[in-house]
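Archive maintenance. Older records in this collection stored only the sequence; we are now back-filling the structure field for every entry so that each record is complete. The fields below show one back-filled record exactly as it appears after the update. Entries are processed alphabetically, and Shikimate dehydrogenase is next in the queue.

ARCHIVE ENTRY
Title: Shikimate dehydrogenase
Organism field: Frigidibacter albus
Length field: 281
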Amino acid sequence: MTDTIRLGLIGDNIAKSQSPRLHRLAGAQNGRRTTYDPLVPAEMDKAFDAVFAHVAASGYRGVNVTYPYKERAAAKVVIDDPLVRAIGAVNTVVFDEGGPHGFNTDYSGFIAAYRRVRGDAAPGPVLMIGAGGVGKAVAFGLVALGLDEIRIVDRDLPKAEALAAALTAASPGLVTRTGTEAAVLATGAGGIINCTPVGMVGYDGTPLPRAALAGADWVFDAVYTPVDTQFLQDAAAEGLQVISGYELFFGQGVDAWAIFTGLPLDEARMRRELAEGKDVT
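Back-filled structure field:
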């Protein structure tokens, strides 16, 4: 391994991502210079496949992959974990012998985020809006947390139905419903989850009207830029327990660092330095 650890993030609309800072700080904890490049296909005037080929050939140790490329990335890597193969999306890629290898730290990061806020509480019936890359990882995380019923909403109904089928195959007995209108399936949901980009910088709004949150127990928003989305503000105003997308960001980043480097990380120090706005050049 060379002195500099070269990493990056492939995605659209990632200017506000805190992942570069997290990984630079992780490197600094270990006395290792770490670079983490934003890799936006449109800005590079390349298609995703060309960007992926570029980083694979340019000395990167690995890359994270975010919206909307996680499912496309899964088709370009070796996936050893059958669970990640079932998810069908990867957000972490390592360029190594016999690779590239793909991993999904959204899955592990969501489980950690949920447990940090809700402990051992069961999810209850869950409405999940968005069946894309992060939605797939979160849904399988919910299964690991004891999910017994999920309603999956996506504008692309066959996408929601395919995810429901994959979840049922992994968890026989799971009750699934699918649809294209979130408000229709919100009644009776204990947990409500946003796994769409709605609410992030550049995608203003909320995936569900505040009135439709009434009666739920908790919410999770995969968006973390901004941390305090309209969806979470509405949920807090309704008295719901809130799991921030920042927790998913932090958990997936910590797990990705371990996969990229195998080096240790002081998580409490990392949380503090991120909150303080610290960075290294």
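Update note: The two ends are 20 Å apart (CA to CA). The CA atoms of residues 116 and 247 lie 9 Å apart.
Entry marked complete.
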